[in-house]
Design brief:
77 residues
């Protein structure tokens, strides 16, 4: 699992379009923006802004939380 986390985080951090990479992984896991935003305790519009490139690239702390959230939501299903 750690290897997958590192792969996802690395792709997001190194991407020219980090928001697009965030969206790609969220969709791979089959998680809605609302579900992920609720889990992260942020608004859906904030997540949408990251994914749409309307906010600057999130920091590593946000990316770590996002990767862990994808994994946790998937485990809970």
């Amino acid at each position: 699992m750690e290897r997958l986390h590192a792969t996802i985080a690395g792709e997001i951090c190194l991407s020219k379009d980090p928001g697009g990479s965030m969206k790609k992984w969220r969709e791979i896991f089959g998680i809605t923006q609302t579900e992920l935003a609720d889990f992260l305790k942020i608004s859906s519009s904030t997540l949408s802004d990251y994914e749409g490139g309307r906010r600057k690239s999130p920091g590593i702390g946000v990316i770590k939380r996002l990767v862990n959230a994808l994994s946790d939501i998937d485990k809970n299903r």
